[in-house]
Amino acid sequence: MRYRELGRSGMSVSEIGYGAWGIGASGWVGATEDESVRALHRAVDLGVNFIDTARGYGESERIVGRVVRERAGDEVLVATKVPPKNRIWPAPDGVDPAEAFPGAHIRESVETSLRVSGLGHFDVVQFHVWSDEWVGRGDWLQTVEELKKEGKIRLFGVSVNDHQPDNALALVRSGAVDTVQVIYNIFDQAPADALLPACEEHGVGVIVRVALDEGGLTGRITAGATFPEGDFRARYFRDDRPAQVERKVAAIVADLGIAPDEIAEQALRFVLSSPAVSTVIPGMRTVRNVERNTALSDGRPLTADQLAVLAGHRWQRNFYG
How many C-beta neighbours within 10 Å does residue 288 have? Predict the structure, then answer.
C-alpha cells in the first residue's frame, strides 16, 4: 500500500481508503455484518488506514468502531459526517447555515457518533452537505474549533454536493477547512478544472468518492439491470440509464483497448493519477472487493496517452436527481 499526505494536516493516508456506506444496511442492500467485519479487517491487514463513514449510514459507524477498537495496535484513521439538521440533501441555495449546521446540532451529532462507535475521537468530521454561501456565517466554525480543542475531532472537512465541485472553492480559499470529499471519476472530471488545483494551492486534503460511479464504471451495469427493493441504485440506475451507462463504458473500453473487466481498475487509476488526490474511498462490502481494489496501490498511474483518451469521455449528468 502506498500513502499520501492528507493536505497540510501532517497525516498520511492510504491512497486506497475504505468507503463504509455500503456496510451499514442503509441505501445498499445485501451486506452482512460478518462479511463487513471480515472485509474491514482484511483492508487493515493490506495497509488501508483510512475509513470513511457517516452518522447517516445506518449501522456503519458502529461496525467501523468495533473493528477499529479490535485493531487497537494499528493506526486507523476514521472520518465521519454530520448530517444537516434540516435533512436536505444536497444543500439548496438560500438556506441559512443556522438551519443546516447550527453549533448545537454539530456537537450533538459528533457526540452521538462517538458514543455509537465507541471511539475516543474522530480524525476527520465532515459536514454531509455544503454551500459556499455559509462561509463567514453562522456559529458552525466556532463549534468546530471548540471540538478540535476538546480533542473530539482532529480535522474538519465537507462533503461537496453531488456534481458541484465549484461550490466549495470559497471555503477552500478561506483556510477554514482541512479536507474536501468530492465526486471525481472518468465521467465527472469537473473537479480537475478548479477545485483540485485550489486544494493543492491551499493544502487541503482531497477524499474522492464515487470513483466507480456507484458501480457504473465496473462494467457490470448493462441494459435491463435491476436491483433489490430498497436499494438506492434502483433509483440511480432507473429507466434507460443502465443502457446509457453500458454504451458509455463500451466506448471507453474500445478507446483504451482494454478488456471489459478492466474498466474498474482503469477508473481507480484515473483518480489516483491526480497528485491533488489524497485518497479514494471505493465502497467495499466483501473481502474479494478489498483485495481487488487495494492491489491497485502499486505506483502505476495511467500514462499521458491514456489520460488524454479519457479526457474525451466526460459525461455531464446527475443520476441522483
Answer: 12
Cα separation of 116 and 63, whole Å?
A: 9
First to last CA, the chain: 36
Which residues are bridge partners to 13 per DSSP? 4
Helix (H, G, I), strand (E, B) or coil at 205: strand
pLDDT digits (tens, 9 = 90+) for 96-106: 999 999 999 99
pLDDT digits (tens, 9 = 90+) for 259-271: 999 999 999 999 9
3-state secondary structure 26-95: CCCCCCCHHHHHHHHHHHHHCCCCEEECCCCCCCHHHHHHHHHHHCCCCCCEEEEEECCCCCCCCCCCCC
Segment holding 269, helix H or strand E: helix 263-272
Question: Residue type at 32?
Answer: T
Specify whether the CB–CB gap between 319 and 237 falls below 8 A. Answer: yes
Torsion, Cα of 281, 288, 239, 184 (10° steps): 20
Percentage helix, strand, coil, to 5, in the chain?
A: 40, 15, 45
- Residue pair 242/223 in contact by the 8 Å Cβ criterion: yes
In contact, 121 and 47? CB cutoff 8 Å: no
* Cβ neighbours for 40, distance < 8 A, ≥ 6 positions apart: 18, 20, 23, 51, 63, 64, 67
Q: What is the pLDDT of residues 213-245, one digit of tens each?
A: 999 999 999 999 999 989 999 999 999 999 999
